[in-house]
Every structure is written in C-alpha cells, then in structure tokens.
Amino acid sequence: MQNVKGIPRAQVLFALVVTLALLYGRMLEAQAILTADGPGDTYELIASVLAPGYTPIEVSDCSHHHFGRHIDEIFDSELNAYVFRFYIHKIDDTDRCRKFDRQRTEIKTYDKSPDSLLGVVGETVRYTWKFKLDTCFQPSYSFTHIHQLKAVGGPEAHIPLFTLTLRKGNPDRMELRYAETTTQVTLSQLALDSLRGKWVEVSETITYGEPGSYEIQIQRIDNGSTLFSYQNNSLRTWKTNADFIRPKWGIYRSLNDAGNLRDEIVRLADFRIKELP
User: Fold this and answer.
1) Rounded to the nearest 10 degrees, how much is the dihedral formed by the CA atoms of 19, 22, 23, 26?
2) How far apart are CA 22 and CA 30, in angstroms?
3) pTM of the model
4) How far apart are CA 239 and CA 253, in angstroms?
5) How many Å separate Cα 138 from the centre of its chain?
6) What are the residue ranges of helices labelled H in 3-148?
C-alpha cells in the first residue's frame, strides 16, 4: 500500500471515516423531534423536547378552567399516528389572561430551551411540521397566525420576522408575511381552500444573517403535490440586536373581528428543528 506524505493510506482512510462519523453524530445531535405518543401528559411531552424542565406552552387554560388543557393528543386515521390537537374558543379564551383582545394556543422555543433550538447569526436551520385545518376553518379580516419566527431581544422583536397568517378575503387566503425591521409585507399567498381539510407538511429553511436566505414549501401528504413555495437567497433574516430567533406554532388570533371567528381545532404533528451544516 502506498503512503500519503509518509502516512499509510489505510490510516488516512480510517481517519477520514472517523471524522465523517463524528460529523454525522453532531448533525444527529443538533436535531429536536417532537412527536405525539398518545393521550395524557401532553404538556410534559412538549416541554421535554422544547424546553426540558420549563414551560414552552402558551395557552388559555387560566381563563377557561372548566375546559382543561388546550392541547391534547388524538389518534389520526389519515396519518395512522397520534397527533397534537390545538383548541381555541371564541368566547372563553384569552392570551394567557394577560391580553383580552386576542387569543393564543401556541408552543415555542425560548430562552430556557437548548441552544440548538435557538437561531443565531450564521446558522442554517430547517423547521418541518405537519398540520391540518378544519374543512370549515374561519379566519377573520384581522390576524390569525399559525406559525411565527420571532426574535427575542432588540428594538424589532415585537414584529415577527416571518409569519404564516390566515386571513378572510375574496378568497380567504394564507399569507407569508415578512418584516425586515418593524413593517410587515406579504411575500406570497395561497387560497385557503387549498389547505382546508387536508394534511400538509411544511419545510422551512432559513440561514440567519444580514443578508441571509429563506425557503418554504408546503406539500399535501396524501399525494405529495406542492401547494405553496417561496425562496429568496438574499434577504435580511435577522433583527437588530436580537439575542436569538425562535419558532412558534399553533393558533394566535385577534378578536378585533370576532364576528367572523368561531371555535377551532387545528391538528399538528411531527415537529423537527434541525441545524444544517
């Protein structure tokens, strides 16, 4: 066997294999997976992945005690698996008994979460999840958010970086909203009937930076067809003086147009947060 600069080739190959194995191991470690596993201890399951020992859940339980927990787990016959069920109630729910002009049932990562679940400048992160809206889901003319990438820290933190917002219109639609600083614009939109009553999977990849890049794709699970896609490789994907950026999922909606709202259930499943090399 020939040598490579005095080192036996077998030794070089062994070192390469070990290096690749270590790199692959780090890639596996930098991934969080949250999957429903059956009724009971749902909040505890969510916390064990998104913020072990803490509470990464924002719900209306405090204002709606007689209903109980606003996130539970149920078996879904279409996916043949357990999924999370998020409830929001038009009359009884609030935003954690802190604000009463809006309602919230969400999960998130935050400052108590592992560092690998918090986005910082230079990182590329892929978020994937599945969701299903009811066939008669009703948004309002005000906001109904089902996903946000939101900064913590800095003067622009109150406006999400990216948002999936459901909006009543002609037709009703889902909007991909973006705020470079504190002013939101709509980057793209999709007729809401394309989503109602169907299980879909979302893949969202972002490189955090100034500039960075952003890509999102939504596909139907039953036939694999792509319903929505957007990509921009030169976009500001950071907020001034932010500590980190984190994901949120669920239902967060305004009551400014409550006449167009009703009680809703949104099913979600198979959350993944993965740092890419």
Assistant:
1) -170
2) 12
3) 0.89
4) 23
5) 21
6) 9-29, 42-50
Q: Which two tokens stand for residue 22?
A: 């270590």
Give the span between the Cα atoms of 47 and 41, in whole angstroms.
10
- Cα–Cα distance, 94 to 115 (Å, whole number): 30
Rounded Cα distance between 42 and 55, Å, is 12
Provide the 8-state DSSP code for 17.
H
Category of 248 on φ-ψ map: left (φ > 0), alpha (ψ -120 to 50) or beta: beta
- Could you tell me if 92 and 67 are in contact, meaning their C-beta atoms sit under 8 angstroms apart? yes
Q: What element of type H or E holds 76?
A: strand 71-76
For 192, the token pair is 């809401």
Kind and range of the H or E run holding 179: strand 173-179
> What would the pLDDT profile of 252-275 be if each residue is shown by its tens digit?
999 999 999 999 999 999 999 999
**DSSP letter assigned to residue 243:** S
Phi, psi at residue 241, to the nearest 5°?
60, 25
Give the C-alpha separation, 235 to 231, whole Å.
10
Q: What is the pLDDT of residues 223-232, one digit of tens each?
A: 999 999 999 9
Report the largest interatomic distance among the alpha carbons of the chain, rounded to a whole angstrom.
79
96: which residues sit within 8 A by CB, 6+ positions away?
A: 58, 59, 60, 62, 104
- Torsion angle, alpha carbons of 189, 191, 194, 198, to 10: 80
Cα separation values, 124 from 38, 204, 258, Å: 32, 11, 38
Taken in order 197, 93, 179, 49, the sign of the CA dihedral is negative
